[in-house]
Amino acid sequence: MMKKNRGLTDDATRTALERILEPAGKGLVRFTFDQRAKLITLPPLPPAYLKALYTSIATPTLSILAEDSVQNGAYKMADFVFVDDCERQYYVKRVLGNHDVHVNYPERIAPHIIHFLLNSENVCSLKKELNYISN
Fold it and tell me: Cβ atoms within 10 A of the Cβ of 121, count?
């Protein structure tokens, strides 16, 4: 059921089940994941407010958007997420796959994350600070 509902690969399904199942005795297992956590409540905020809120973040940000989620309308109230904004260091990449693309196909997102971490000006200066602090 999990594999079909989330579109997971066999390996990803096994890994997920290992994380959310625990022995319950007598050969039985129980879920440790509360299914209610999957219920998402969207705040009744107008798109202009969402944009003002999310675009006010000063931290360098990489958004990786799964193409299936885009096609399913997950961002219909937030079309601003699709546009790179170098001034505020917001970068967006779209990858093939569904919400769990990071689980099923990490090779699709890893190059974008590596590039972002190695090339973001503020991230690099933060990394230098952390190296200085840890030495």
Answer: 9
Question: What residues make up the domain containing 20?
Answer: 1-39
Q: pLDDT value at position 127? A: 56
First CA to last CA distance, the chain: 49
What's the predicted TM-score (pTM) here? 0.69
Same domain, 52 and 103: yes
The answer on 127 and 67 residing in a single domain is yes
List, for residues 101-118, the tens digit of each pLDDT value. 998 999 999 999 998 988
**90 neighbors 84 (Cβ within 8 angstroms):** yes
* Residues 90 and 69 occupy one common structural domain: yes
Claim to verify: residue 118 and residue 73 sit in the same structural domain: yes
Give the total number of structural domains in the chain.
Answer: 2
Alpha-carbon Rg for the chain in angstroms: 19
78 and 20 housed in the same domain: no
Query: CA of 68: how far to CAs of 71, 73, 97, 98, in Å?
Result: 5, 9, 6, 5
Report residue 21: phi and psi, to 5°. Answer: -110, 145
